[in-house]
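Example 4.3 (complexes with small molecules)
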Amino acid sequence: MKSEKPKTWSGRFNEPVAELVKRYTASVSFDQRLAEFDIQGSLAHARMLGAQGIISQADVKAIEGGLNDILQDIQSGTFEWSLDLEDVHLNIEKRLTDKIGDAGKRLHTGRSRNDQVATDVRLWLRATVDDVIARIHKLQTAIVDLAEQHADTAMPGFTHLQVAQPVTFGHHLLAYFEMLQRDAARFADARKRINRLPLGAAALAGTSYPIDREGVAKDLGFDGVCENSLDAVSDRDFAIEFTAAAALVMTHLSRFSEELILWSSPRFGFIDIADRFCTGSSIMPQKKNPDVPELVRGKTGRVTGHLMALLTLMKSQPLAYNKDNQEDKEPLFDTADTLLVTLEIYADMLGGIQVDKAAMRAAATEGFATATDLADYLVKKGMPFRDAHEVVALAVRHAADKGCDLADLSLTELQKFSPDISDDVFGVLTLEGSLASRNHIGGTAPDQVRQAIRRARSTLGAH
Ligand code: ARG
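Answer. The structure with arginine bound is encoded below.
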């Protein structure tokens, strides 16, 4: 970075800022990624100043030309950022003034970096939210595609990580579709509160110039203005909301990852994750490690940490702006980066998953997964549910002693537990019978999975 003097606000100071302090207080190394949005906000502000007669149209023209050139320099990587100029805002403003002289110095009329930075972050976050929602939909599509191939595939459903009842793999996958559906809705809702204009709040109290805030809001595509100037420059609740929504997506994907890790372990052997998402071990030649899901699980901690950082950053700040708020950017940027790349890699990874249906099936028949079905069968024959529960528990113990599944017991053996049992019992003791019987909205029956997939596809198509 190059060196620049003097500081924009240095008039009242008797000595220069200490080198270490300069480095401690500067944010340009990380807030330069707001440059495009800073320029977008400045252009709208300048146009408004011109339209309101606060600066001349000639100044507006000069500012527009200068800022567009600067944007090009930044995009082509030729812009030289200076640590002495503290942050993205002062770097761009100083460059503009170097280029166009006094007109550049008029840009900051009726504005403060306090409302400027809040505007930049909101513009950046709005674009980021749109990107996040699009990627969530892409991942949901990958989930639905995989679920469609496995609407009939039986696997054990678990509670307490013990085999509970049979489910279809398609149904299991669609649980994550639902979680992501709520996640996308959370971002869409947060976007409404992000999309408000702080500019006009100036440092904290508003400004004495005859500004047009609604006009700037419209120009920048905001739904309206922040209605209290103190609030506009000081609160970062919109960033916290975004991070909270991101932490929830990561939490959902962390749970999914935990399952992929379990299912791909040789003990389960339910799925195979494509080699390109795994690595080997440098010492154990037989290993294929599920690095991607493990890292997703790990990075969830990082995003949750950012949420804590932002909440803690906010909690003791008096109104209005405090420099503390400069610390909102790194957690927020890292949250967005982590989330976006995770969503992308996840959609890819799901496309490369191979399913071992026989292994899933074998596991579903091993854990007495149809025990509830037998109890329900007895209830339908007139036995009270609690009695049926007890009868089946005895039958399970008997099968366990014999080392076989309930469906492997003979009719005579089963009838020892209840004379109500007849030949038709084998219809419910099979995986297919059990699955097909849960045939209501939200149930695991293959027909229901196919209907859920149709609903999911039409929801996704509507975006
Ligand atoms: N770099 C600062 C930030 O990110 C910009 C606002 C500075 N305002 C101030 N009064 N020092 O928050």
